[in-house]
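Work Package 3 (structural annotation) set out to generate three-dimensional models for the target panel prioritized at the project kickoff. During this period the team completed the workflow that converts sequence records into discrete structure tokens, so that structures can be stored uniformly alongside our sequence database. As a representative example, we reproduce one entry of 261 residues exactly as it appears in the project archive.
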Amino acid sequence: MNQKILFFDIDGTIVNPGQSKVVKGVEEAMNLAHQNGHIIVLATGRAPYFINENIIEVVKPDYLITINGQLVLDKNKKAIVKHSMDEETKASLIEESRKLDLSFAIKFEEKMIAYNKYDYFKENYLHGRNGQFLIDGQDTKIDEYNNAMDFFYIGNKDIVMNLLSKYSNLTTVSVSDNEAECYPANYSKASGIKEVLEILKLKEEDCFSFGDGENDVEMLQVCTGISLKDASKKAKEAAKYITDNLNDYGIYNAMKHFKLI
């Protein structure tokens, strides 16, 4: 088979949500894909500083599309593409979210800052991730940090989604029953894929994408999209192929099916 480029979501696709260890079959599949000369890319909503090193060691990504396409890195974690929210939208979101007493944090390139209810956010978000990158911004001036890339909320999702629906310049996705996030509408994992393809001079027909969540829908539509049987309804509707469950060698079996390994 000719060289292909493979884009993998992390949470719910190669690891169980919030965990740091890849599920069975993934390490072998990645090793075989590399041996076959394919290019491997992680495409995640996680900020790069919250991608556990053992995931990097197993996957050995050639590129990383992080923060839902707002930040693209090479394999040495050097930023090669950056996008951010306009300052007016950022300031408005902070003000309105504080009025509603929502627990939220903003992802920046090098840190994540919780602007309200820091202790609650820390307790419900980190799940073993490195806490040094989550900063308490309760007393931080709104304009002290520029280039916000993503807002992540934990709490009453109905209130959060109602607030975010007022911002037409943002993409809003549900992450779990009590989590949601938003980011600039012009950029996503799909736009990150196109940017990596442009850098490598490859075509969309050369790429496969693997995902399970709402923030994977666009990237599943760009490439030959592969979702898992236990993925979200929207992801499965967007995918061209549905493989087995996450913990039933879903990724390995899909890569075998398409003769990538």
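The longest helix spans residues 87-99.
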